[in-house]
Amino acid sequence: MKSIAILWNAMNPFFEEAINDISKFVVIESLEYVEFKDYRQFIKDIYALDTGTGKPGYSDYKADIMVDKYDSNQICILYLLLPPSEKKYIDRKDTFIYENIEILKQFIRKKYKTKVENYSFDNVFHMTDDEKEYDFVLNVINRHLLENTDRKEKGLIKK
What is the DSSP letter of 84? Predict the structure, then answer.
């Protein structure tokens, strides 16, 4: 099973530690450090599919808690391989999520929420929950790598 994870800019001082933690749960196929020219738009596009609390303006809220709040807007994008897992129902999302994905997300968030400056749910870690979200986020990343950086080619992983 494939997943994409993003260590947000609040995690910048802890990137290496968090990458080490993540590698204990999954195979990191590849990773890349990126600083987008329009970081706000990237965040809004990533959360366009993720309704979070279901409230209008959720993607704006996410951008507001991350853009220009730290020394850098640099993020780390990780392409992950996970073993198959059972799905379990998550009340706050009102959906079923692979158990190993939820365990990793909660581990990273719990460990780093006390370490990062100005923690707010959730400005440390994003991870795709399923194949639909993986495809969506991969397309957003590839588009922003092409249009929102100085690079001339798309992202690291093709579908």
Answer: -
Binning the chain into helix, strand and coil, the percentages to the nearest 5 are 40, 20, 40
* Cα 11 from Cα 113, distance rounded (Å): 10
pLDDT-flagged residues of the chain (< 50): 53, 159
Two tokens at 24?
Answer: 């204990």
From CA 53, how far away is CA 61, in angstroms rounded? 11
54, two tokens? 């279901």
Which residues are CB-neighbours of 158 under 8 A, at least 6 positions away? Answer: none
Predicted confidence (pLDDT) per residue in 44-76, tens digit: 999 887 655 456 677 888 888 898 888 899 999
